[in-house]
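help with this.
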Amino acid sequence: MLRAYCFLGVIEAALSMGAFFLVWRSHGYGLAELQAVSPVILSHAADAATIGIYAQATTLTLAVIVACQDGNVFACRSERTSIRSIGFFSNPLIWLGIAVEWILIISITQQASLQQIFSTAPIVGWHWLVLLLCPPIMLGADEMRKVVVHRLSQTPRQNVI
């Protein structure tokens, strides 16, 4: 539970929120401007351009969560054993699950009828670069955690009286 909520979950939350703010920043909104426009968005009184940015930000946030889960599924195959030992292709059902989730994400973000239903926006060029970084960040962080835990478990402990 600690690993899921206090380690991997915190990383995933940071990446997701970072993506949300990155979209707003790419449109010239800093934190102060975003705070100023938030009440207008929440009251459904924002102009079309602002709603478009909001849809883009929430869409990228959702897609980052999905991308992080791709790294997470490999990280969580074992609590202590590296993915290099387990192998990326030893469970083909994982790849089937990843394919299905990306078909769904691409469908709800790229098809106009599904965009209206789910209030999403298209994933555009630089968004894909962000999404490609998320799985290795998640997996890499957990791989480093496994190394540290392994080394700590190998360290001889002295008895203190």
